[in-house]
Specification:
Length: about 250
Amino acid sequence: MLFLAVDDENLQLNKLVDALKEADPRCEILSFNNPLTAYEAVKQVRIDAAFLDIEMGGMNGVELAKKLKQINPNINIIFVTGYDQYAIDAYSIHASGYLTKPVTIERLKAELANLRYPMPIKNDTNRLRVQCFGNFEAFYNNEAIRFSRSKTKEMLAYLVDKRGAMVSVKDLSIALFNEEKPSYIRNLVADLSKVLKTIGCEDCFVKHFNSYGIKISEVSCDYYDYLNNEPYAVKAYHGVYMQQYTWEKEAQF
């Protein structure tokens, strides 16, 4: 899990980071004493939970929380503050928690155990991780993977949806373009192979003669975990699946 900690008082920030490490030794933490710097730094990183002071210079914690939710609507926001008058603001943006200082290890553990958006229990930083609920996204080492072509990303999404089944060039063409474009599909295959090789995940992409698939054992996926009744995935599904693609409506849960 990747956490964000922001507090403009260094002493309080260090205490929060130490408490988080003790509450969840598996977590990685990005810490900042400037909310503007924090926002710029995490634009391309998927944060699982953000622990934010509220009264800060430049941008207060509520404003920062709103911006973080624009990046990732399912981010868990936990306000950590010395004041209690912001509880209504926290409720209005559907924060996951509200802690008053000083924060204790026990209270942090309680918040982590009852997050609004439960986090995966696995450490998948060294595997390809895909998110199917909401918009489709792909990650490696908790960073969003950049695709030079949007159709390359869509092809990966389609193969993930097929859960290991091999898909022919013709079927990929129809799904992605509504017509047969075999040469374009092969260009996308080469592009996807290059992207996955760059991050060391090429083993998850299976290629046979004129057909392609995903090796599901090499992929961490909320959809797959949902089908296996993993508690975090069951709670994370709110009825929206790969919503940016039209063919996703064929998916059966």
